[in-house]
Write a structure and sequence with these properties.
D-Maltodextrin-Binding Protein, domain 2, 15 strands, Preph_deHydtase, prephenate dehydratase activity, 6-stranded mixed β-sheet, 5-stranded mixed β-sheet, binds 3-phenylpyruvic acid, single chain, Alpha-Beta Plaits
Length: 317
């Protein structure tokens, strides 16, 4: 009997990006085929077009915030869903070809998220240099190695892989930055609930309705569904039109989160479900679940429902 074909993973490349590092923490990706792509849109389109089964792309950084291109591409085109998140620490180095000294650097290639996180260092050490946006940390490293730019901000593994000398390490303004990556597939049944899941959504509100965003938040709040991230992105239609990206605690299979989704369907112009998946957990994290605030646990909701049933039955004792 022929074996199951290996899963085809694509990731924001070239080789030795943080995204590749994050992908390699996923056991299934270690067993599968891993192909670097030049950009986030190319990675997601490979999945949409069936050339790959899953794409790992950066979504947000604890210092630089959202990776806009990923959010935009998730709501543009055929539906995709997140099946997993990976969070890893990131640190940056300044890499150059051998023999280039700091005082000779006029151009620095960097992913915009990377230059944002190293803004203070650049200001202090290379105030006159031109920083050029490129598609990833490894694209920056390759461009410096090939002499297109004088230096690159890149991952330590990128400097090693492309044989750059490290003129300065740990150049980020915050030493404890982390980046969150998401594994994206074509739509299918979500991973089983684990009891500690995240559900991601994009909602489009009716802009001419007073309180439209409040109505969205209310659908979550009244059901005790915790909102862990809200981000707005322009829809591209006209100034003032936004899509809101929401992350909520819980799984689409959970009763209250499911009801909140139905509520959003009623009050929003459009809701795009972007997946339910296990929350990333650090190895050092305790297994003990964080207790729900008073009045918002499943037991509280079940109690309230039972009380209502008794009232309806005339049981006021
Ligand atoms: O994966 C990479 O190396 C990227 O270029 C994306 C990125 C940029 C900045 C921090 C983490 C990931």
């Amino acid at each position: 009997m022929p074996g199951v074909p290996p899963t085809r993973f694509v990731f924001l490349g070239p080789e030795a990006t943080f995204t590749e590092q994050a992908l390699r923490t996923i056991p299934a990706a270690e067993r599968g085929i891993r192909t670097p792509m030049r950009s986030v849109p190319e990675a997601l389109d490979a999945v949409r077009g069936g050339d790959a089964d899953a794409a790992l792309v950066p979504l947000e950084n604890s210092i630089g915030g959202a990776v806009g291109v990923t959010l935009d591409e998730m709501i543009d085109g055929a539906p995709l869903v997140i099946t997993r998140e990976v969070v890893i620490p990131v640190e940056f180095v300044l890499g150059t070809r051998a023999g280039v000294s700091l005082d000779r650097i006029q151009t620095v290639a960097a992913h915009p998220q990377a230059s944002t996180q190293c803004r203070g260092w650049l200001q202090a050490h290379l105030p006159a240099a031109t920083v050029v946006d490129v598609l990833s940390n490894s694209t920056a490293a390759i461009a410096a190695a090939e002499g297109e730019y004088d230096a690159a901000i890149c991952a330590p593994i990128g400097a090693t892989r492309y044989k750059l000398s490290v003129l300065a390490d740990k150049i980020a303004d915050h030493s404890d930055a982390v980046t969150r990556f998401v594994l994206v597939t074509r739509p299918g049944p979500p991973p089983e609930p684990t009891g500690d899941d995240v559900t991601s959504l994009a909602v489009f509100i009716s802009h001419d309705r007073v309180g439209a965003l409040l109505a969205v938040l209310m659908e979550l709040a009244v059901r005790g569904v915790n909102l862990t991230r809200i981000e707005s992105r322009p829809t591209g239609e006209q100034l003032g039109r936004y899509a809101f990206f929401l992350d909520c605690s819980g799984h689409v299979a959970d009763g209250r989160l499911g009801e909140a989704l139905q509520g959003l369907r009623r009050v929003c112009a459009e809701v795009r479900f972007l997946g339910s998946y296990p929350r990333h957990r650090w190895a050092t994290e305790s297994d003990r679940p964080v207790p729900a605030p008073a009045g918002l646990s499943d037991v509280d909701y079940a109690d309230a429902a039972a009380w209502l049933a008794r009232l309806r039955a005339g049981d006021l004792a």
